[in-house]
TrEMBL record:
GO cellular component: cell envelope
Entry's localization field: Cell envelope
Entries under InterPro entries matching the protein: Peripla_BP_I, SBP_2_dom
Signal sequence annotation: 1-25
Protein name: Sugar ABC transporter substrate-binding protein
UniProt family annotation: Belongs to the bacterial solute-binding protein 2 family.
Example GO molecular function: carbohydrate binding
UniProt keyword terms in alphabetical order: Signal
Pfam families linked: Peripla_BP_4 (PF13407)
Domain Periplasmic binding protein intervals: 42-310
Keyword Signal recorded: yes
Cross-referenced PANTHER family: D-ALLOSE-BINDING PERIPLASMIC PROTEIN-RELATED
Main localization (coarse): other
Classification of source organism: Bacteria, Bacillati, Actinomycetota, Actinomycetes, Mycobacteriales
Length: 345
């Protein structure tokens, strides 16, 4: 995270076993392993271990764990939304003696009972990136204001569209997942197509939305979703995407159809790949967030809890910045150079 940054989410026994193996593999190679086990243990459970966002989050957690003298265990779901593997990982980490666990929940409602069991045993549980549903299920949250992230790209898309007709396609996350709902509703609010709401109900009735498809944050699924939307309405002029992997999939569909210049494509994340896509014009603008900062703050909080017994509380906003190569009047933004300086891998 840039030092002067200003503003500031298996269903089988086999999959469960895989998560178990991953957690214990991490315990063998994490910071402090093999030194007698005297360090406090911190767990990190991400949605997947392949998305660059979570790769950077893990790097940030490991760096802070080394600096704080704690031992890091890591695990991940096999896919975005894999609650069963995350539940298994939570149980394993509690049994391994974790003092605190950081989690980006794949299913923000289904994970709650497992979180409650961990907290009942005295384990500090902190959500990263994605609020649980309800948010009070965890001790604390370190995350982007996802509603604000959506609102920024909504305002940008509205300004960039000008007087052209608004025909919006929305490439969403899994239905009901808090981070997806917040970004979706934030975008519609920023665009002026819906009233401001942070309730955990995705607005499906906004005017000008001609197509809304879930794609689970996956590039290939987003490409298929965008193809479906173009079949439904070939004149789409604005494309909202939940993350940059989805944006790149949507761009491929637009480009294949020869419609890449008719639609304003916006997204959220601000990873280096995404910022380079802004630089070369595939993505018009993206809301940059800071996963390394989320993870480092989370590890620091657990280390403090282990030392003093004081748990973190409430919500800490880790910042969001609009990145674009084509700024619009009245929409605060930074340029591509800033985005590349602050991107997360």
């Amino acid at each position: 995270m840039h030092p002067h940054h200003r503003r500031t989410l298996a269903r089988t026994v086999t999959a469960g076993f895989a998560a178990t193996a991953l957690a214990f593999a991490a315990s063998a190679c994490g910071s402090g392993a093999g030194t007698g086990g005297g360090e406090p243990i911190v767990g990190l459970i991400t949605k997947t271990d392949t998305n660059p966002f979570f790769v950077k989050m893990k790097q940030g957690a490991q760096k802070e764990a080394d600096a704080a003298g704690v031992r890091l265990l890591t695990a991940a779901g096999k896919f975005d939304g894999d609650n069963a593997s995350q539940v298994t990982a939570l149980e394993n980490m509690v049994n391994a003696g974790a003092k605190g666990i950081l989690i980006t929940a794949g299913d923000t409602k289904a994970i709650v009972p497992a979180v409650q069991k961990a907290r009942a045993k005295g384990v500090e549980v902190i959500a990263l990136d994605s609020p649980t549903d309800p948010a009070s299920a965890v001790d604390a949250l370190f995350a982007t204001d996802n509603f604000a992230a959506g609102e920024l790209i909504g305002k940008y898309a509205k300004a960039a569209l000008g007087d052209r007709p608004a025909r919006i396609a929305m490439i969403d996350l899994n239905p009901g997942v808090t981070v997806g709902v917040l970004r979706h509703n934030g975008f519609l609010t920023g665009f002026g197509a819906a009233q401001a709401t942070k309730e955990m109900k995705q607005d499906a009735s906004a005017p000008n939305v001609v197509c809304a498809q879930p794609a689970e944050g996956d590039q290939a699924k987003a490409q298929s979703a965008m193809e479906t939307c173009l079949q439904k309405d070939p004149a789409i002029s604005v494309v909202y995407t939940i993350n940059e992997q989805s944006a790149l999939g949507a761009y491929t569909a637009l480009h294949t159809a020869g419609k890449q210049d008719q639609a304003i494509l916006v997204s959220v994340d601000g990873g280096c790949t995404g910022v380079r896509a802004v630089q070369d014009g595939r993505i018009a603008a993206t809301s940059q967030q800071y996963p390394l900062l989320m993870a480092s703050k989370g590890v620091r909080a657990v280390a403090e809890f282990a030392k003093t017994g004081k748990k973190a509380e409430g919500y800490t906003d880790t910042g969001v910045t609009l990145i674009t190569a084509k700024p619009q009047p009245g929409v605060p933004a930074e340029d591509v150079a800033y985005g590349l300086d602050n991107c997360w891998g």
